[in-house]
Fold D-aminoacyl-tRNA deacylase.
Amino acid sequence: MVTLVVATTIDLASIGPASALLSMPGWYPGPLLQDTSSFTNRAVRLLKCDKSIVREDHLDKRWEEATGEVVDEVIFLSKHTAASNRPALTVHPIGVPHLCQDEVPPAGGKPGWAAPPNPRIGPWLRLLKAIAESHNLIPEFEVTLEATHHGPEINSPTMFVEIGNTEEYWKRQDAAQAIALLVWEGLGLGGGAAVGDWSRNNGQRKILLGIGGGHYAPWHMDIVLKGHVWVGHLLSGYSLPMEDLGQSKQTNVEGVGGTWREAIKVATKADFPGGEVVARLDHKSFKSWQRNAITGFLAEQDIKIGKPSDFC
């Protein structure tokens, strides 16, 4: 079982951390995947692509077919952009589960699909914040979760780790070094214990499914940073399209149209063996009829709704 760490040479915020990571000991050249070069260090394979990584569909399957190695997880290194232009270090799961089949995803993936979230997302967010603090990147940089969004399409547990938000920050060597250190320590390449190994969950088997709120999910992130929470998908309001079919005053789930049901159903399929997905609702982001429909649908799916204390 191997971990794929994926970077692209066309993205400064991707190749910078990859280069910093490769400057650490233990790496040697690995096999080519078509035109993609790779490097090996223990059970980690670092791939350098030459095109947009949100379009690199099925890298896990392609690697297995080319090498015979089974892929356990995938970690993409990427840039982040936002209208605020505030410098940021982010982590997030991927997918576009709310899109209809006839829609074209603007940034890769497949409509109605989401990759299994990498169990490291929560633990690595906490580690990233500690590294950023120790490297004096805070408060200049914000360390944050993002909601589930974009591609590529892939079937292995996956996460994105990103530097934002403009070229000035994408090429910052201190930010690149912080991301490289996150991967180095997080995967145990320096000899310490890996961070975010689900098989060593110490009895905490609840996985947070965030529902509602904005793209940066501050209500959900506050819980993650304060505890030992495992993080599944985070569905912001825009990923839950809901249409009033004239029955909004009823609690009948069927009275609300849109792809919100499909998005929630896909997002509950987290790859945490033996774990329990528990939903956390940002109640203030929903009207009463929307909230009633969502809670009713979660009940139908046997998904519990948790309070902050349930994730401690």
The helical segments are 12-22, 59-67, 121-134, 167-170, 173-186, 218-226, 260-267, 288-300. The chain is about 25% helix and 25% strand. The first strand starts at residue 2 and ends at 8.
